[in-house]
Design the sequence.
DNA sequence: TACTTTACAGACAATTCTGTCTGTTTATCT
DNA sequence: AGATAAACAGACAGAATTGTCTGTAAAGTA
């Protein structure tokens, strides 16, 4: 039974709540109550709720970047890696009851016009886009064509996430997966 | 200088505000103030804020359904119609400063678990999906293949909307447009 | 032992939110 | 003119929000 310090406990608790009910749907009082900390401790580590949101998105970004890096370093054709990335998305959405993309969900809020949060969203999205471009460039020689293909897969990935959330069904992911794989040569 | 009744004025004002800043970012007090009505008038026509949201989404849905119906009835190949539909999306996003899809934005909120709102979202998304399936079926003979293609275009459309919003850039729409057109035979 | 850091407990202020309520004014119709 | 419906004005309740503030307890460290 480990008991991390207050700062980490707050981040983990808030992360779970933000993801489940959205940034604007969770209050600080609930976060500190579930994290078992005092409000003074909260404001010692996070000067505002927005800064906590930034820290949450940054942590998520680090995790996903790590997975993409590992996937890129593994051997195997790009087609298979793209397929695996979509499979992972499907698993994630099912397990999280189709809560969708935390970045898109946060960006849909008017509070997200805070520059720090907006920058986190942009950074993550551009990183994901770049990931697909790299995978495409390994299968496609022509530079412009590879970039275009990577962008197409990126849009498919985003649409799959969004519509799975809206419809609470998995089929958008499987459809997007097939479409993405078809974009890459054998 | 027309002056519609209070009910319509509320719906129009709320619609513009909801779209601009999101359902949770706008309060009733602001709506009635900008609409120039009294709070009592508001609650005479809309028993709750949620019911107003439903009415807003329903009105949006009727408008978009109407456009799709007209587009389907016009002559011309499916490829061109799909291309026009994406062009219209791009124009809409640019003019609205990349506020994205009102349905997806509302669905990202925890308040959207209200059954009425959730049903509106589902209905609209299924209608859009069906629209692309119809267009695909006119270009593709095989039934299953046409449905699959329509679904792929639907996912592309959704991803274009979402990422244009996240990145505040138009390229996801143009990329998705090309990808969608390529899915249909000449 | 004395000091410092970390965290807890919780009152409080200042807003903001939805929704209810009382009462007044204006317009329309007979 | 008189009756009826629609809309206005705005106070109020009750709850929830973020953020500040005071004080206390427990732990490690010199």
Sequence:
């Amino acid at each position: 039974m480990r008991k991390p310090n207050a700062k980490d406990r707050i981040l983990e608790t808030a992360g779970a709540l933000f993801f489940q009910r959205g940034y604007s749907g969770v209050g600080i009082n609930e976060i500190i109550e579930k994290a078992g900390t005092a409000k003074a401790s909260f404001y010692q580590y996070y000067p505002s709720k927005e800064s906590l949101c930034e820290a949450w998105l940054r942590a998520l970004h680090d995790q996903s970047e790590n997975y993409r890096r590992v996937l890129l370093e593994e051997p195997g054709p790009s087609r298979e890696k793209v397929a695996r990335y979509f499979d992972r998305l499907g698993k994630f959405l099912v397990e999280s009851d189709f809560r969708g993309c935390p970045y898109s969900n946060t960006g849909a809020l008017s509070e997200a016009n805070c520059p720090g949060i907006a920058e986190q969203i942009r950074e993550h999205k551009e990183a994901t886009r770049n990931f697909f471009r790299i995978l495409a460039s390994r299968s496609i020689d022509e530079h412009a064509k590879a970039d275009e293909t990577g962008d197409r897969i990126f849009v498919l990935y985003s649409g799959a996430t969004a519509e799975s959330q809206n419809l609470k069904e998995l089929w958008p992911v499987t459809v997007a997966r097939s479409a993405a794989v078809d974009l890459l040569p054998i």
Remarks:
- Chain B has two domains: 1-46, 58-183.
- Chain B has nine helices and no strands.
- Residues 27-29, 39-40, 43, 48-49 of chain B lie near DNA strand C (CB under 10 Å from a C1').
- Residues 133 and 147 of chain B are 5 Å apart (CA to CA).
